Structure prediction request, 709 residues.
Amino acid sequence: MQEESKQQTISVAAIAQPQNDTITLLEAIGILWKRRLFLCGMVLLGAVVGLLVSFWIRPQFTSDALLQIDVKGNKASKAMGEMGALLEVASPADAEIELIKSRMVLSYVVEEEHLCFSATPVNKLKRLLHKEGRMDIEALEIPEVARADEWLAVATGANTYKVITPEGSTLVEGNVGDLLKAPYAGDTLSIRVKLLRAEDGEVFRIGQSNPLMASRDLSKSLKVAEKGKQTGIIGVSYSHRYADRAASILNTIANTYLRQNVEMRSAEAEKTLEFLEQQLPGVKSKLDSAEKVLADYRHSIGSVDMTGETQVHLQKEVDLQKQILALEQERQQATRLFKEEHPTVRTIIKQQEKLRGELAKLKANAEKMPLTQQEVMRLQEEVQVNNALYTTMLNNIQQLRVVRAGEVGNVRIVDYAQIEPLQSKPKKLNILICAVAASFMIGVLIVFLLRMLQNGVRSSSEIERETDVCVYAKIPECHNAILHRRKHKGHTAGQPLVSAAPDDPASEAIRSLQTAMDFSTTGANKNIMVTGLIPGVGKSFVSLNLAALHAVSGKKVLLIDADMRRGVHRGRKNAGLADVLAGKKDIMEASVESPVKNLFVMGAGRAAVSPSELLRGKVFADMLAKADENFDLVIVDTPPVSLVTDAELIWPVVDFNLVVLHYGKHSMDEIKETIKKLKLFGDKPCAFVMNHCEHDRGHYYGYGYYGKY
Prediction:
């Protein structure tokens, strides 16, 4: 029960511990401020790239035109009104927009404006300076076998040019406006240049594309949209490198669309007129034939005077025939749109059947008349019916001719495209701002990615909790010039940081370390070992400055560089620890007095055998015992634990062990494993020092010589 309670307490404590993986806003700002030079470099690079891109993009000029669609016939949209906009009822302009962007319109524009042909300058410097020439090609036919190759045209004068083959030879040379032809690869190349504005020697890359691909490219570049909701006003815009070409292409699109709209609306009247004109001679022939038969019959039997009853009867039959004929025309028109089963068609058929029934009754009554009157009435009825049909066809033909001549379509051009004096692209300021912003964001991303890659421990409380070893001090990152000297020239070449820059935050942190060690160690702890997990953690920096502080306080201090492989301190005539352990030198002979009073330094020396062999046994322990007799404090700077076993051999013979950690570089498992490994060689007092700390949570400002923490 107690164990369960203990486990719960531990788990609750673990949960209650603050998570150090999160970064606050102040920490993020501090991280970016530390990398401000890098971010400034990224911003400068982005500005340069933005300027180059803005000058590299060729200028574009945008022209626009305005069209109006007549929506009088769209009764549904009128009835819906504003409710139609809310219910997303399709506007008649939507269909017209698709027609404008259709190949039916654009294919003609491609041919009319010669958009299949291109002439692009190739000089990069002139492009960057916006000093490129211009060549407009009116006609071009490249042999199909060489159409994918690179063809060049070179300006040779104010109005002359030459064509260069893919092989680099001159094929043809001539003047602007002339159609030039020359044989090539079993075929003929022909070209006509409409306009040439270029310096002598300027080169253009000429090409011929597929008309279908040119139509698709034009459709993608064309911007067509309705102005407002259900207004019927369509705006069309197009961008081109040359302002006059943009206006010309856009006006050609508008005129082509207008012409085809008129042609489509008059197409039905044209077809009906053609049909009636084809049927008119046959109807006229029937009328002439009926009149001749009636005249011959009257001549054969003499003149017959028709009674009033017969005339009324005949007039009724003629009227019924006209009505039946009119209904038949309506039925034919209806069957074009609907099937025979549609109610509209069925209604017309029923009306025809009713009229035919009435006509049949009249014919039955006519049979009671004398035979002569019946025949005359029949012939006269046929004449009148054919005459009415002929007259109706003539009237319809005349009306259709008037409609065809006066058809204007449901589209009109409100504004034609004009030549724009100012370029619309590139927007250099926008490009520059975007490039600077993008480079800054990339720089921020790189900074935080590098920070994320340094996924080591940054919390001293976490280290103490997991290892049961105290963290005596957190030394901030120091940017003093003394730390930028080469290691092989060493700290002996100048004063330690605590002497050269006593107001530096790192110096204050080392004083805190000295205070912590004074309170935690006894007078018997005269030997202190300083080591690190990996190279570059700053153990030599900590050793030197800690020794200098003790020396300044009045103690006689000996600093021993125990890294006999890559020693920082050289010693007198390269004599050092290796020579003392080998019996070649005495301690005092190998120790050199530093510029700091009471501080002596014993270099690493040069080992003839493996340093590990020199450290084994009692030789090193005896040397430390002798050093204790001559010095108040001995600090041993050892190699990194992870590389060699030297620190493990020195650990048992010293009184106190100081392990230097690099802020944010070591994982907790590495730290725990190192401490466990070292304690196998002896249970000695131990403490941590975190070096290269980043104080991003805030800054503290003191007074006088304390400076900024």
